[in-house]
Automatic annotation (TrEMBL):
Record Pfam families: DUF2805
InterPro entries found in the cross-reference section: CHP03643
Origin superkingdom: Bacteria
Protein name: TIGR03643 family protein
Length: 97
């Protein structure tokens, strides 16, 4: 995806990409699958849209993180879900039974 294509992303797409990039367990491959951005394009996007101090903090977090790359993971990492966590269904929180 070129710089021109990155500019065509909606504001909510950009927010979601940045959120996914910050999440420790969301691999770059998930962002590429959902939005078509390679790891390098995510890095460029983050550099453009974060404050310099936030950019440096994010880069230092991501560089050594195995969970950000599917190929480097030893085994599939499942998301943790607390037994008390409520389910979200059609934008409504389901009641616990």
């Amino acid at each position: 995806m070129s710089d021109k294509q990155i500019h065509r992303l909606t504001s909510s797409d950009m927010d979601r990409i940045i959120e996914m990039a910050w999440e420790d367990r969301t691999p770059f491959e998930a962002i590429e699958f959902q939005f078509g951005l390679s790891e390098q394009e995510v890095i460029v996007l983050m550099r453009k849209h974060l404050k310099p101090s936030s950019w440096r903090m994010w880069r230092s977090r991501v560089q050594g993180r195995v969970t950000k790359h599917l190929g480097k993971r030893l085994e599939e990492v499942d998301r943790f879900k607390c037994s008390r966590q409520k389910s979200v269904s059609l934008n409504r929180i389901s009641k616990r039974h």
